[in-house]
Here is the input.
Amino acid sequence: MSVSQLNRAARRLLETEFPLCRVAGEISSLTHAASGHIYFSLKDAAAQVRCTFFRSRAQLLGWRLENGQNVVVQARLTLYEARGDFQLNIENVRRAGQGDLYERFLRLKQKLEQEGLFDPIHKRSLPPFPRSIGIVTSPQAAALSDVLRTLSRRAPQTRIVLYPTPVQGEGAGASIAAAILRASARAESDGCEVLIVCRGGGSIEDLWSFNDEAVARAIRASSIPVISGVGHETDVTLADFAADCRASTPTAAAEIAAPECAAVLQRLESLERILRERFSRQCSDRAQRLDHLHARLKHPAARIGENQRAAVALGRRLALAWRQRLGGLALRLQDQCLRLRHARPDSKRRAERLEAFALRLSAALDRELQQREAILDRLGAGLEHLNPEAVLKRGFAVVRDSEGRIVREAATLTPGDAITLRLARGGADARVVAARSEGEEKNRS
Here is the structure.
C-alpha cells in the first residue's frame, strides 16, 4: 500500500480502538497559532506526545496554558496523516491536582444518588409555552448575554426575571442555592414557570460551585422545574443530575426553555390553513348533501298520494293473485275427484272373485291332503316291513353275547358261551352247546 493509505489505516485504527481518555503530563513546546489553535507537547520523565488543541475547544478554556504546567488532558488518539505524527486531539484540559476535587465529586454524587435525589421519578416536565422564565446566574457572566439573546430571538413575548448571584469563588455555592430557593418562594408572585441555572465553561475549580450539595438540594426542593445549563457539552456537575432537564450549554438551556416563536407561529399558520381547508371541504360536502336531501324531500300530500296509488295497485295485484290461486285450487280439486272416482274399487266383483278363489283354494287343499295321506300310507307300510318287532313276531329272535353285542355269525360263538335271546314277547338266557358254520346249517336244513 502507499504511505498515505498506510497512515490513513493507522489513523482509523487508533480512533476506533481507543476511546476518549485522560492523560497526565507537563506542557512543553507550547505554541499559540494565529488561527487560534494551540500546539504543545505533553511529556513526563520518559516520553512525550504531540498535542493539538483546536480553537473551537481552546476558546472555552477559562485560563491560559503555559509551558511547565502540569495538566490532565481529555483527548482522543489520532495520527496526523500528512507527517505520520502520532498526536492527541485535546477535548478539555484541567490543572493537575484536581484529582482530589474529582474524587470529592464522585463521593458526593454517590451519596446523593443513594438518597434518591437524582431518581428520574422526581423529574418534572417543562411547560411547553412559559410566559415567564427565571434565570439564576451572574449579571456579568457571558452566559447571561447568550441566554437573553436566545430568548429575545425565540420568544420575545416571554418575561425574564433575573436572580443575580456569583457563580464562582468562595461562598458561590450557598449564594446559588439561596437564589434558587428565592425564585421558588417567589414563583407565585413573579409567575416564573421555569428556572434556568447557568454559567459558561471553565475548569473543574471554576464550576465547583455547581457541585455544592446545597445547590443540588435546592434544585430538587424547587417548586418550579429547573433547567441546568452549566459549562459546555463535556462539563458535568451535580446540578445537571439534580435538575429536571440538562442542557449542554446556556444557549441550549434557553432553547429548551422557550419554543421558537417563529416556528410556533409558522406551525399555527399551518394548522390554521389546514383547519380552514378542512372546514371549507366539510362545508362543501354538507352543502352537496343538503342539495341531495332537498332533491329527495317531497311534500307530505304528494307522498300520501303516492302511497295511496301504491296501495290500490297492490290491492289489485292481491285480488288477481287470489283469483288465480282459487282457480288453480278448484282445478286441482276436480282432478283429484276424477282420479278418486276412477280409483274407487268394485266391492261386489271383488267379493265374487274372493269366493271363487276360496273354492279353488279348498279344492286344492283337499287334493293336497289326499296326496299326502297316500304317501304317508305308503311310507308307513314300508316302515312296517322294516320294523324289528314285526320280524320277531314271525318267529325270529335277536341274539346277544355276554357283552350285549348282537351275534350275526356263528363263528363268533364257542360252546359254553352265555347268550341272551330277545323274542317277540319276552326273552331267555341260554348257553351254546355247539356252533355250526353256514354250510353245515344249510345241510341240516
About this structure: The CA atoms of residues 35 and 55 lie 7 Å apart. Residues 104-259 form a domain with the Rossmann fold fold (CATH 3.40.50.261). The mean pLDDT is 86.
